[in-house]
Amino acid sequence: MKRGTALLSLAVVASLLVAGCSSGTKTGGGTGGTGADDKIIIGSALCQTGIQAPLDEPALRGAQLAVDELNAKGGILGKKVELIAMDGKSDPVTVGNVAKQLIEQGADAIIAPSDFDFGGPASREAQKAGIVGISPCASSPLYGSAALGDKQFTLSMWNTTMGAATAEYAYNVKGWRSVYVITDDFIDYTKSLSRYFIVRFKELGGKVIFEDTYTQGQADASAQLARIKALKEKPDFIYISSYQPDLALIIRTLRESGVTQPVVGGDSYDDPSLFEALGSKYGSDIIYDTHGFLSDEANPKYSEFAAAYKKKFGSDPDAVWIMPGYDVVMVLAQAMEKAGTTDGAAVAKAMEDMTFDCLTGKLDWAPADKGHEPNKAAALVELVAGKPKFLGWVIPEKIPAP
Amino acid sequence: MILLEFIVNTLSLGSLYALLALGLVLVYGILKLVNFAYGEYVMVAGYGLFLGATYLGAPWYVTIVGSLVLAALVSYLTEIAAFRPVRTKSMDAMLVTSFAVSIFLQNAVLLAISPRAKAVTLPAFMTDSVTVAGVTLPVRNILLVVVTAFLLAGLSLLMKRTVLGMAMRAAADKFTTTRLMGVPANLVISAAFVMSGFLAGVASLFWVSRSSSVDPMTGSGPLLIAFIATVMGGMHSTVGAVVGGFAYGLLFNLLSIVLPASMINYRDAFMFVAVILFLLFRPQGIVSRGYVEERVG
User: What value of ipTM does the predicted structure carry?
Assistant: First the structure.
């Protein structure tokens, strides 16, 4: 009896595991075998749950919308496009495994999560399989051909641009001269963003009063607060490179205890949950740069996109991250059309040669021997009473070397 | 100035940690169950705040009471649905069940609400600051100390003066004998879970309001803190839990100030070293007075 129960439960667990592994959501296309020739499969290893979800989950919606639009216009190379999405679960190992499964299911290209640490494993699997891997918003300069391989791209500007753009804005436009930097040592994104910001800010002649650190998950910023309060020389502003959910906690901790200096940061600020968490009370004097802005002012094509989005999902776009998700699919489609094939090397070559007009701005990649460095502008945004306000597109005068 | 800030911060952090530890120890005392689902009660209460304030737009007092009731209710339901059926089985079964409950609750909110963080709108007094003697402090921190003091006093009265409290204390000491005296086991255990959930709810109110947002993984931080605090203070008595909570808060704040910035990321490592030292040299915790090990079954 006991053994029977044990065997039974083992069988149940095994079947659950199998079911869990094969449950991907599909958009477009039909059902079909592996690597079918009558359709083009794009595999998404984006993280629909976990700490990456605020970035990746909206991007997936954008990708789904793009696939629908492509299919309505006849697909890519006359073939139907199918998007197979599996949850990378904000775990690098899972992301790699999911990418492997997607490739086994015949993926012609892989969409990797929007970060080097979380998305890198998917790109490595894509590179191994000889297909193109592209991340919507991974901004670490490691995301490119140098670290990941000659068929790997990120649609995002690198942190070299993201850090320099705000450094120049703070120094040149705002006239701020001294900064207190808090760097979350969570992932390469948070660390390298501060690094390039500091390089550019010092180059301009700015003074870094102190380089403080924080660790994601500590859920307490009292140590950083105490050090800022103990400063004899008050900084003109505070640069915080961190990640949600702790980013909201750090900013609130500072503001609640009377630290009123402007806070500056990168694209991880671009999250509606942060705006709401800060609210109208603490959501001011915050400046960051990101990939775009949900308005016609930032991109004339926005209304058309927003209308299509609303038709599919029943609500207005709620996060900027939807647009890069849409863009990656469109970039892949254009490159495949130009290459005339889905062959990884040919598509990668087309991506290097072409210039793309995206919702997130004009994009031009350097060749593989230059690391696939993206040439792209940053969208500067200021948070005013909890509402984001578009300041403009910026390409830094000088971009630090990666 | 710095000193006043330090004292208030330490007291408030200690209060928060004491509440968290106390909730964990109440159940441990009787069931000898280290409840890994405890953090999820904090998380569920956070979602109660989100649903009440942000989603339904209810007045703040309704929201707060609602989320406390929700946490206590979820705690009670997990006891009935998950822990009661395996109570007479091995200790391992209980432990694994608590993991299962934790994963179940996390995924339930993930599916039902969102995998992304949700903002929680809080009443002004939870987000305002006051300036006392030139020091700007969040009102919340002062409120937390006061609330904790009242709760501890109330709990101590309950434990010492009421029949239920006496039964719970007796059950924590010698469960079988207590049952032989005619005390219903289910009632005592359910009461412990309800109180555990309620304390998690109170702690959640203050935990969540620090960042004003809640996500499915919110419970992992409080759970770890409750563990460390109970190891330091002592697993076997409610006094130990409270002492452990305050000791942890003090150590945490001291390290925050004393450690140079280059070392601050190793603060957790220092905390864990302290825990290991406790386990090696004083495994019973700061407060060794307590009850004998006896399992319910």
Answer: 0.79
